[in-house]
What does this fold into?
Amino acid sequence: MLKKKICIILFAIIILIQCTTVVFANEEDEEELNYFNEIQEELKQVSADISKEPQISSRAVVVIDRNSKKVIYGKNENEKRAMASTTKIMTAIVLLENEDLSKTVEVSRKAANTGGSRLGLSTGNKITLNDLLYGLMLCSGNDAAVQIAETVGGSVEGFAVLMNNKAKELGLNNTHFVTPHGLDEQEHYTTAYELALLTDYALKNEKFAEVVSTKTYTVNINGNYKTLNNTNELLGYLEGVNGVKTGFTNNALRCLVTSTKRENFNIITVVLGADTKKIRTKDSIQLIEYAYSNYKLINIKEKI
It folds into this structure.
């Protein structure tokens, strides 16, 4: 009789778990659909009067033309600010330029215990650097960032040295790194303009460009497969968007770096210090549509 009761209870629990999973999945689908509708509505509003300068709420923004590196639009673009997880653009580049992505590593306790957004690593897990890179850039895993730092630089501090050396090499004089993930630190900062320049450099790396343009990817963590979704809300929703990185901390607020290509006109948009995700999305859309509606590439040779 007791065994029968236990079986009934276990069966009820299994049914409850399955039902709960379905509810969560539906809620996520509904949330994504609603957000897509919001983006479409924002596009309609922007298109109504695109000739006017964007009304930007974020604290610092910039749009640059990738060909000339000229600023198309800027607001406080040279002001030093916290950058949150957009830091991981540099983390990815240092990894790509110093290690073989096919290498398998064992996850340290420090990496596994890192808080904030996570890939979901546990101490002793085995994972390739390639999968860590996707975990870093798609779901913004802070645990992945620390493991990359320890593997490439020997420690978080050692990796920060490599990050700052690269910044110096690129002429980013108003940028300084303390961590590989971007959690708030007083001496961890950049400017919207220099973050755009860093992104332009990073996108020249084919692997980096491939990763940040990926909507979903399945990684292998210790023999278990996990599908990751890109946190970039504009990827797949706005024409020409092909990356790059989101970010949020209490100090940095909402951040978004976006790469867009329409025909042969490539731009990078950086939004730092937005109060909400909706504002960073709205500001990004305004800036992108403003750039493409008011500027175009001209071949001077054809005009002579």
The chain has ten helices and nine strands. The first helix runs from residue 2 to 48. Confidence is low (pLDDT under 50) at residues 2-31. The CA atoms of residues 64 and 70 lie 5 Å apart.
